């Protein structure tokens, strides 16, 4: 059993403008002492550091990858956008969308981030690895073909899917997005296609606002191949697992993909500053285990997790460690020091019943 872990220090050097969380500084918004966007390198670097300290890294096949090629990028993004991105990156950096500032060299770092996803999915589809994790940064799931947003500059997962399809390595792909925000970019790219099943579990009315409705099912040939599961603020461990059991598992089983790709954000966690959901490290461990079993049952275990959001510097490392333990069957553990207190913060039985009824209603609407 070999689990790949694709990362590159250079992706941690991507940096944006002078923000205080999601607001540009200025006016009444004072710069933060440790300022910048919440999409900082620290969440990712601290995950890798924790893995190094516990020894989990030594149980993984640690690799880097080349930048995604121009051909790879052009399958998803128009030349007009890529040319503008490259020119502004060479000229010192700037902003081409919404909350996606970048500095000099941002283009090459984004292409490297996509390249990590391409290599991870390639290695799993060829059988060189059983499964893999790509620590891609910047993230990708919000990025539209010609409009970067939500910290995402290139759609890493779509670029990797298209690269694999162009080589005839996969025809049907299921994308499960458990980042707490709606995977609007991936949804848009595949909205009219029936060969890519897109599923997004996200906090309703978070980001993007007015995106990710349960009624948005796809168009044309893609009708029925997009599934949105908007969950209420306050959903915790049990709600996430219920959404998986009642909707995700039957949907992916019916679809019978060649590979499952997870848009793996850790921003549904209790401590995340950009959400109001209550997932814990155990939630991510359990979601990973269930997805892994599902992949073993329907597509020979072919499973790749691609890193998306997650903005708690202290908690992302524990969520990520639990995820990679589950993915790799490693016995190296990083006991979650917050687990006891976070278990007490889960919804009370009355609210849990409400969340369950919401999810069950969606499942019935989807025909499960
Ligand atoms: Zn997110």
Describe it.
39% of the residues lie in helices and 13% in strands. With 368 residues, the chain is an alpha/beta fold. The strands form three sheets. An eight-stranded parallel sheet has the order 4-1-7-12-11-8-9-10, sandwiched between helices. A two-stranded antiparallel sheet has the order 2-3. A two-stranded antiparallel sheet has the order 5-6. Helix 8 links the parallel strand 11 and strand 12. The longest helix has 21 residues. The two termini are 33 Å apart. The mean pLDDT is 96. It binds zinc ion. Zinc ion binds next to loops.
Pattern of helices and strands:
EEEHEHHEEHEHEHEEHEHEHHH
Low-confidence stretches: none
The helix/strand class is: alpha/beta
Sheet of most strands: 8 strands, parallel
Which bin fits the share of residues in helices?
25-40%
* Structure summary, number of beta strands: 12
Strand content range: 5-15%
Which hetero ligands occur in this complex? Answer: zinc ion
> C-alpha Rg, in Å?
19 Å
Which outline best applies?
globular
What separation lies between the terminal Cα atoms?
A: 33 Å
Contiguous helical run count: 11
Q: Report the average pLDDT across residues.
A: 96
Strand order of the largest sheet: 4-1-7-12-11-8-9-10
């Amino acid at each position: 059993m070999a689990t790949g872990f694709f990362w590159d220090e250079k992706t941690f050097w991507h940096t944006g403008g002078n923000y205080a969380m999601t607001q540009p500084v200025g006016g009444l918004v004072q710069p933060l002492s440790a300022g910048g966007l919440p999409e900082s390198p620290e969440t990712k670097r601290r995950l890798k550091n924790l893995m190094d300290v516990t020894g989990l890294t030594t149980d993984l096949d640690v690799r880097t990858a080349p930048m995604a090629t121009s051909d790879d990028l052009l399958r998803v993004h128009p030349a007009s956008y890529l040319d503008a991105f490259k020119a502004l990156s060479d000229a010192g950096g700037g902003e081409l969308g919404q909350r996606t500032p970048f500095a000099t060299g941002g283009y090459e770092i984004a292409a490297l981030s996509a390249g990590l996803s391409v290599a991870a999915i390639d290695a799993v589809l060829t059988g060189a690895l059983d499964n893999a994790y790509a620590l891609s940064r910047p993230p990708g799931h919000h990025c539209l073909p010609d409009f970067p947003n939500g910290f995402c500059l290139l759609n890493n997962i779509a670029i990797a899917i298209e690269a694999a399809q162009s080589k005839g390595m996969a025809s049907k792909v299921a994308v499960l997005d458990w980042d707490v925000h709606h995977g609007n970019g991936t949804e848009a790219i595949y909205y009219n296609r029936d060969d890519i099943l897109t599923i997004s579990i996200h906090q309703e009315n978070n980001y993007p606002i007015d995106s990710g409705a349960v009624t948005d099912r796809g168009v044309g040939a893609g009708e029925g191949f997009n599934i949105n599961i908007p969950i209420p603020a306050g959903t915790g461990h049990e709600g996430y697992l219920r959404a998986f059991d009642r909707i995700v598992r039957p949907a992916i089983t019916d679809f019978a993909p060649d590979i499952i790709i997870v848009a793996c954000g850790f921003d549904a966690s209790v401590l995340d500053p950009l959400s109001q959901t209550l997932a814990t490290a155990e939630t991510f461990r359990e979601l990973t285990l269930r997805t892994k079993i599902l992949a073993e049952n329907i597509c020979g275990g072919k499973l790749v997790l691609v890193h998306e959001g997650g903005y708690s510097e202290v908690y992302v490392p524990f969520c990520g460690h639990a995820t990679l333990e589950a993915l790799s069957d490693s016995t190296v553990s990083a006991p979650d020091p917050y687990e006891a207190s976070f278990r007490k913060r889960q919804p009370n039985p009355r609210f849990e019943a409400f969340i369950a009824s919401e999810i069950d209603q969606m499942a019935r609407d989807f025909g499960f």
